[in-house]
Automatic annotation (TrEMBL):
Topological type in the membrane: Single-pass type IV membrane protein
UniProt xrefs under InterPro entries: DnaJ_C16_autophagy_reg, DnaJ_domain, DnaJ_domain_CS, DNAJC16_TRX, J_dom_sf, Thioredoxin-like_sf, Thioredoxin_domain
Cellular compartment(s): Endoplasmic reticulum membrane
Primary role: Plays an important role in regulating the size of autophagosomes during the formation process.
Name of the protein in question: DnaJ homolog subfamily C member 16
Biased composition (Basic and acidic residues): 549-570
Alphabetical UniProt keywords: Autophagy, Endoplasmic reticulum, Glycoprotein, Membrane, Signal, Transmembrane, Transmembrane helix
UniProt region (Disordered), positions on chain: 548-578
Gene Ontology biological process terms from the UniProt entry: autophagy
Length: 767
């Protein structure tokens, strides 16, 4: 009950400091209004001008109010929590109220032994507190230089108490070695905690290269150290012995980096050295020599190593002697950083990227900060070796803070070389030296090239030295100007390699998320995955059951010969009909064959119907002409499709269908002598493929003005012409066209739904 009453009593205490009230501005005031109010009040209450006894206190309040409101982060904290100080929203008034409450009842805070209130909270974590904007803008970019160990905590976190001693010890040790430390308080930075995927406290996680990894083992010192080491790439430091040190040190030509060797008597690579290698991996290559290991005696003897003192050496272009050495019984981060920062580049670095060019040859900021680059434009191979060696010797002898010596392979950076040498003939196949100064970041440079090609002779050395001496007193010596394009990144990995490593990282992230991450993070992905699988398999199962009956009667695939013949017939008909049918009566009518039978009928979409005209080869042209004129007004409906069926090819299919319309069409038995002579030309079937029914239109008989106008129910077998050779059935005759007389009225009744429907169990195969 006491613990529940404490926050209520604290919240009841009135606030004592309101920066908005002190400056006399509203909570929605802009920064310009706040600044204006501050200047006015500061002039009014400045102690030197205002002799009021309370002027000094008033001026302090005004300054404090402006300090809070002028900082967007502090202002947001005050608006949210009522305080903008170190307590992150737990106001000092609340702290004092707690004290008064405790003092009034003679309770000592140590009675509870809980470090939950801001006064008792250890200040060790406060300097590592992270905010969302600070994390996104500073911590994440910095994680590409050093790994971060981050603790997620909260108020009233009972589980946080046992890990505090271990956390402090490891955090202090890791910070001294060059690692990063962070603390996220879920009570004040819930957004940041959710962004990281931490939904409970305490949670320990690592951050490196912008990637978050959760710690899942017991919180002990050894496990946390190993966790940080496992965050680092495994190829940062190479183990060096007598067998491979020559190859390692000779790698400067390929890597374009100085190579660092650390000699120590520890059997494993120290974490300090691994963290250093990660921070400088873009500039240096690192190797470790365990001096206590058999097989390193030659290496230690050649470079005169003291096996009892850690030694660090840097090798540049000359592998027989180190460019710089440092020895110390206690290697620390500051010493190593000072040593490496002065040796990040080779004596004559090869420009392999635009980033390297900008770092070695910075843009001129002022007259005193002028830095010039002496560039050797050369090639690869033994042909250019002598010129390079002489240039390297000159660079070693004339190293200065204001000069940087670099070289470029002209065949790898052709645009850069052409911009400086203007494609002059005297430089073709030879080396050249150019002195340049970058003027801006857009690529503008001022430069001067040596008149003759660089051969490395003494005369060339004197000429170059004389130009550099003149440049000290006369910056206008660089009379030529040009704009160079960005350099190609020669050492960038191929696209396939980058894609491969990106894929590996993605798979690793998915594996870690699947088995270690909070399941709350995985629920959206799992829900999406199972929903997609359910829809996929559900659709397949439903389709399989719905098409089971159709699959049994599915027709075999058509032959190529039949398809070619059909296309030929369609082409000849279209050519003939186009010359006889007016454009206004044109209707797209396709032949119903075994090839398109399934798509145009069996699997026709729900609500769609196929209107099929029955014809023969001899009556094809006149019937199609009349059919097109009759149904033209109904072509605007997207649910109607128009086809024709050849009676000569598919008589059996039609006879089978008409058996289900016995009341409308008495079909003779197989012994009827006129069975093969019955004429079904001019009949129209409206087929609903989805619901498996059809409506029937009977042809109009000459002289019939009565009820034989196309009803699905009224069918008279006597209307069939028993001899197709009669003149009434001849192609193009008026009697054939009259068969489709008043078809348009039948189509209207079809759309109204007033025609009789004949249902069938399944659609027969169209053989």
């Amino acid at each position: 009950l006491l613990l529940l009453l404490l926050p209520a009593l604290a919240a009841a205490a009135p606030g004592e400091f309101d920066p908005y009230r002190v400056l006399g501005v509203g909570r929605s005031s802009s920064q310009a209004d706040i600044k204006k109010a501050y200047k006015r009040l500061a002039r009014e209450w400045h102690p030197d001008k205002n002799k009021d006894p309370g002027a000094e206190d008033k001026f302090i309040q005004i300054s404090k109010a402006y300090e809070i409101l002028s900082n967007e982060e502090k202002r947001a904290n005050f608006d949210r929590y009522g305080d903008a100080g170190e307590s992150q929203g737990f106001s000092q008034q609340q702290h004092r109220q707690f004290h008064r409450f405790h003092d009034g009842f003679y309770f000592d805070e140590s009675f509870f032994h809980f470090p939950f209130n801001a006064e008792r909270r250890d200040t060790f974590d406060e300097k590592y507190l992270l905010h969302f904007s600070h994390y996104i803008n500073e911590i994440v970019p910095d994680s590409f230089k050093k790994p971060y160990l981050i603790k997620v905590t909260s108020d009233w976190c009972f589980s946080c108490i046992p890990i505090e001693p271990v956390w402090k010890e490891v955090a202090q040790e890791l910070e001294a070695l060059g690692g990063g430390i962070g603390v996220v308080h879920t009570g004040y930075e819930r957004r940041l905690a959710h962004h990281m995927g931490a939904h409970s406290a305490p949670t320990l996680l690592g951050l490196i290269n912008g990637k978050i990894t959760f710690f899942h083992n017991a919180v002990v010192r050894e496990n946390l150290r190993q966790f940080v080491e496992n965050l680092l790439p495994g190829n940062l430091v190479e183990k060096i012995t007598d067998k491979n040190y020559i190859n390692f040190l000779s790698g400067w030509r390929k890597d374009n980096k100085p190579h660092v060797l650390l000699f120590d008597h520890m059997p494993v690579v120290p974490l300090l050295y691994k963290l250093t290698a990660f921070a400088y991996r873009d500039y240096l290559s690192f190797g470790y020599v365990y001096v206590g290991l058999r097989g390193t005696e030659e290496l230690s003897s050649q470079y005169n190593i003291n096996v009892y003192t850690p030694t660090m050496m840097i090798f540049k272009e000359h592998i027989d002697r180190p460019a710089d050495v440092v020895q110390a019984r206690e290697m620390n981060k500051q010493l190593i950083d000072d040593f490496l920062s002065q040796n990040k580049f080779l004596m004559v670095t090869r420009l392999t990227s635009q980033r390297l060019f900008q770092e070695l040859c910075p843009v001129k900021k002022s007259h005193r900060q002028r830095k010039h680059c002496v560039v050797l434009l050369t090639g690869e191979g033994e042909k250019f070796a002598e010129a390079y060696e002489s240039f390297l010797t000159f660079a070693v002898a004339n190293t200065k803070n204001t000069l940087k010596f670099v070289h470029v392979y002209s065949d790898r950076q052709p645009e850069f070389a052409d911009a400086l040498l203007m494609d002059e003939e005297k430089y073709h196949g030879r080396s050249a030296v150019v002195i340049l100064e970058r003027r801006n970041n857009a690529g503008k440079i001022a430069y001067k090239a040596l008149e003759e090609a660089w051969q490395g002779s003494k005369e060339d050395n004197f000429i170059l030295l004389d130009l550099l001496d003149q440049l000290r007193t006369d910056p206008g010596l660089l009379s030529s100007e040009t704009v160079v394009a960005d350099l190609n990144d020669e050492l960038a990995p191929m696209f396939l390699i980058r894609w491969f490593y990106s894929t590996l990282d993605y798979i690793s992230d998915c594996w870690d998320s699947l088995f270690h991450s909070n399941w709350r993070e995985m629920m959206p992905l799992l829900s999406l995955l199972f929903s997609a699988l359910f829809i996929l398999f559900g659709t397949v199962i439903v389709q399989a059951f719905s098409d089971s009956s159709d699959t049994r009667d599915a027709p075999p695939s058509g032959k190529e010969e039949t398809a070619a013949k059909t296309e030929k017939n369609d082409a000849s008909f279209n050519k003939e009909s186009n010359s006889r049918i007016p454009k206004k009566g044109f209707v797209e009518v396709t032949e119903l064959t075994d090839i398109n039978y399934t798509s145009n009928l069996v699997r026709l979409r729900p609500g769609h119907m196929n209107v099929v005209l029955i014809l023969s080869n001899s009556t094809k042209t006149p019937l199609l002409q009349k059919f097109a004129l009759e149904v033209y007004t109904f072509t605007g409906s997207s649910s109607l499709h128009f086809s024709f069926l050849s009676l000569d090819k598919h008589r059996e299919w039609l006879e089978y269908l008409l058996e289900f319309a016995q009341d409308a069409a008495p079909i003779p038995n197989q012994y009827d002598k006129h069975f093969l002579e019955r004429d079904y030309t001019g009949y129209v079937l409206a087929l609903n493929g989805h619901k498996k029914y059809f409506c029937l239109f009977k042809p109009h008989r000459s002289g019939d003005e009565g009820g034989t106008l196309g009803s699905c129910k009224d069918y008279d077998a006597s209307q069939h012409a028993e001899a197709r050779g009669k003149s009434s059935c001849s192609p193009g005759s008026r009697s054939i066209k009259n068969k489709l007389h008043k078809l348009s009225f039948w189509m209207e009744r079809l759309l109204e739904g007033s025609l009789q429907r004949f249902y069938i169990p399944s659609w027969p195969a169209l053989d």
